[in-house]
Amino acid sequence: MEKIVALCKRRGFIYPGSEIYGGLTGTWDYGPLGAIFKKNLKDLWWKEMVQLRSDVVGVDAAIMMNPMVWEKSGHLKAFTDPLVECKVCHQRFRADKENEIKVHEKTHKEKTEWTTPQKFNLLVKAYLGIIEGQQDEIYLRGEITQGAFVNFENVASSTRVKIPFGIAQIGKAFRNEITPGNFTFRSREFEQMELEFFIKPDEAEGDKWFNYWKNQRMNWYTSLGINRENLRFRKHEEKERAHYAKFAEDIEYNAPFGWSEFEGIHNRGDFDLSAHNLSFIDEEGKKFTPWVIETSGGIDRSLLFFLIDAYTEDGERKVLKLHPKLAPYKVAVFPLLANKEELVSEARKIYESLKQDMMVAWDDRGNIGKRYFAQDEAGTPFCITVDFQTLEDKTVTVRDRDTAKQERVKINELPEYMAKKLS
Ligand code: GAP
Questions:
Q1: Do 201 and 288 touch, CB atoms closer than 8 A?
Q2: 113 is in which domain, residue-wise?
Q3: Mean of the per-residue pLDDT values for the chain?
Q4: 317 within domain boundaries
Q5: Weakest mean pLDDT among 146-155, 236-245, 324-333
Q6: With 0-12 CB in 10 A as exposed, 13-18 as middle and 19+ as buried, what is 265?
């Protein structure tokens, strides 16, 4: 983990939030490479879940919602974690995280005593209004989900959807986590990518669609390069299920800190639509309350696990073997020497031309070895070098990140070559 955290800072993937003022616990800022990586991840999810499907539409709902939403959805009462306090040092922990409790107990010489667990609500409060004393207390959304539910009838009446259909959404959520930690894994501000898939209310339909979505989601992660051996499904026991879930299974990753959830598949039954008093009228005029199968993934957690899974060391060489579709920069262009005008101008032309279709890095500092080293750490799949032979025969070397092999490619064939390699 330390190596990943250090690489993220060094290469501009992820920095601690508000770092120059000592940080803000549980917040992280994505740097130049992290921001592109995150956008790639979101775009790929959107393409898979919305663009390529005819039974899913997307929304982008507000983060601030009428507090009634959270009362009706059950979050004001039930969106809690059990909190305990160490009586020696008054640090607070989640009572259900036994490992974290054990680790803390080892830091004290004397026997640690704990307060009895209390329910701690995770919703983050905010205040809206311009007159002091007359401000409305609201909550930043604890899950993006409710934005899809409260718009259920709007979507149904403004589009041509028919059951079964889904509402997809990507956006920020906020939780007052008791113990943020493990880098971005447990943050107080994070992003979710979710599908709420509405089906006919029926146990058998529920199982059919639950299994369908579970497999779709697992396949998506492996298609983008995560090693299947590092992934598993885990069923929730009854006592750990969220208040809205009839049934739940997580997709977990074998992280350095243990198997960890990064996407949940939930059968929410009619819990939410009933709570908001919403229903659907089908083509025959029959009114009913659909059930919901939900796939809820964390952008930050999956990004972290894509990074961990892609990280490899080959002697001194550190390589992020990210799937080309996820890699922030698809290609880097170098002039062999920064002080040879003909090389620089030829390389610039290639750089400007490839930039029309993809993210391209430019580097003319240091020697070629150092530039490869930096691009390997950044996960750039290909590096193009313009050398003296280029000036004679209009070819460049293209070096492959994963094999470190080089081949010569004609400049006018580069766009086609890259498109093939990156698909
Ligand atoms: N709408 C259902 C829902 O929100 P969840 O299991 O509470 O379900 C779904 O959250 C996903 O959101 C998790 O699998 C995780 O990837 C992400 N997530 C939840 N809490 C998080 C946190 N504190 N920091 C980062 N990601 C988080």
A1: yes
A2: 80-120
A3: 96
A4: no
A5: 236-245
A6: buried
- The answer to whether residues 106 and 209 belong to one domain is no
Query: Which pLDDT belongs to residue 314?
Result: 87
pLDDT score recorded for residue 134: 83
Instruction: Please give the full DSSP string across 49-111, using - where no structure is assigned.
Output: IIIT-SSEEE----SEE-HHHHHHTTHHHH-EEEEEEBTTT--EEETT-HHHHHHHHHT-SSP
Q: Is the pLDDT of residue 373 over 90?
A: yes
Same domain, 290 and 337: no
Cβ distance 272 to 73 under 8 Å?
Answer: yes
Task: For ligand 1, pick from 94, 97, 172, 192 the residue to mutate: most ligand atoms within 8 Å of CB.
Answer: 192
Q: Report the CATH number that the domain containing residue 383 is assigned in CATH.
A: 3.40.50.800
Same domain, 59 and 116: no
Expressed in angstroms and rounded, the spacing between residue 46 Cα and the centre of ligand 1 is 18
In a domain, 171, yes or no: yes
Query: What are the pLDDT digits (tens) for 312-330?
Result: 998 889 999 999 999 999 9
β-bridge partners, 269: 292
Q: Is the pLDDT of residue 147 over 90?
A: yes
From 235, 296, 305, 306, the mutation candidate for ligand 1 (largest count of ligand atoms within 8 A of CB) is: 296
Express each pLDDT in 410-420 by its tens digit: 999 999 999 99
**Ligand 1 binding pocket includes 252 (Cβ within 6 Å):** no
Are 60 and 95 part of one and the same domain? no
Query: Considering only CA atoms, which residue is closest to atom 12 of ligand 1?
Result: 298
Q: Please tell me whether residues 370 and 398 are part of one structural domain.
A: yes
Whether 230 and 309 have beta carbons less than 8 Å apart is answered as yes
Strands 291-298 and 311-314: unpaired
Structural domain total, the chain: 3
Cα 98 to averaged position of ligand 1 atoms, centre (Å): 20
Here the CATH number for the domain that contains residue 15 is 3.30.930.10
Decide if pLDDT at 243 tops 90.
yes
Q: Does the C-beta of 145 come closer than 6 Å to ligand 1?
A: yes
CA distances, 55 to each of 157, 172, 295, 323, 376 (Å): 15, 24, 15, 28, 40
Token pair in block for residue 37: 């990586």
CA distance 268 to 265: 9
